[in-house]
Specification:
alpha+beta; transmembrane; about 70 residues; membrane; 2 helices; three-stranded antiparallel β-sheet; transmembrane helix
Length: about 70
């Protein structure tokens, strides 16, 4: 029971940090488009518990991929 609460707190903290990071990026004029990706499932055959995928268009108009899975 205590381990479950610790895991929930960890995922909650990570989620809040990710949201704050995206908020900061949007404040400095970075466009963020969220997109679900099936690449991980196709490569590994396993579906992650949590998946955050974001495409960030930087100020110099390069497209970079930010993908966090755990």
């Amino acid at each position: 029971m205590k381990a479950r609460k610790s895991i929930d707190f960890l995922f909650s903290t990570i989620s809040h940090l990710i949201l704050l990071t995206f908020l900061f990026l949007s404040v400095i004029n970075v466009d963020i488009i969220f997109s679900h990706s099936l690449d991980y499932e196709l490569v590994s055959g396993e579906e992650p518990l949590y998946e955050f995928t974001a495409f960030a268009v930087l100020l110099d108009e390069e497209l970079s991929l930010v993908r966090l899975k755990f």
